Amino acid sequence: MSLFSNKFSLKKTPTRKAPTFLINKDLSPNRIEKELGPDVGPIRLQLGDQEAVFANGVWIPESGKVSGTFKENEKLKKEVHKLEGENYLLKLQFEIMLDLLTESVTQNLSLREELEKLRNNISSNR
């Protein structure tokens, strides 16, 4: 052992195993697509009695204690989203009705003023 050798030098990594189609010399496009294709399917993870699937950037539990809670939470989120939409619609309808009421009150006031002016003109002409 040399006095100046590096104790922390990296060891050579072992070579990887070749895919099965290279070992079998089956280079058909279907076989290559099956081995290396982009359609891998959903990623599944099982830890003890719980199983989860990775879909749309979220881990979705499929079995175990957590799956029932997750499904219930998803239903509640959809219900909350629906109720928020209805609430927005009701607020919009309320604002429109308030605008219509304001417009009718101002029209009524202007008509009363015009009626008063006409009454005053008639009474002054007599």
From TrEMBL:
A Pfam family this chain is assigned to: Chibby
Coiled coil residues, start to end: 66-121
Record carries keyword Translocase: no
Keyword Coiled coil: yes
Superkingdom: Eukaryota
Keywords: Coiled coil
Residue stretches spanning the membrane: none
Family matches, as PANTHER family: LEUCINE-RICH PROTEIN
Protein's UniProt name: Protein chibby homolog 1-like
Organism: Polistes dominula
